What we know:
Elements: H1 8-22, H2 29-36, H3 40-43, H4 50-73, H5 78-95, H6 97-102, H7 109-112, H8 116-130, H9 138-158, H10 168-184, H11 189-192
Amino acid sequence: MPRAGLTPDRVTAAAADLADEVGFDHVSLSALARHFGVKDASLYSHVKNLQDLRTRLALLAGGEMIDRIALAVAGRSGKEALVAFAGAYREYALAHPGRYAATQIRIDQSLVADSPALRRTAEITYGMLRAYGLDEPDLTDAVRLLRATFHGYCALESTGGFGAPRDVRASWDRAIDALHITLEHWPGESKSGG
Length: 194
């Protein structure tokens, strides 16, 4: 491919596709250069380094993921929103394993405030949880519980970590039911402390 068509967005999109194909940890500037038919050095006018590329990939994937989640939860609240949110999260994680892995990296906090996708993620997640009557610090605790549960489940499922004969989807549905009950009866500070 001719190098004239390279842009930071195009390089990032190619990295996202490569991540889904070979795994996020195997994305390299050399592999992308081979994909575009250019020398490694040609990419440095579009991305600073591998960390910059990984951050761009994380932001791209995070935006894609929250777009799907937002669409799923639109007009819903309570358990219906939780089920939709969780389902969209799981579907994205399983369909795009490399992109999903990118969403789990730590991003420089100075970039977080400038990212519309990350702000939107917080707004949608916290908005869904406020419907359960949660306030801070319980909101943050509940976000961490959801993220740990969703991520842990998806990570185990994607690697075949569930060996029991029970249907994995049935267990997922029960886990979401349990989270809903927990959120409705949250034991935290804002509900009990008054």
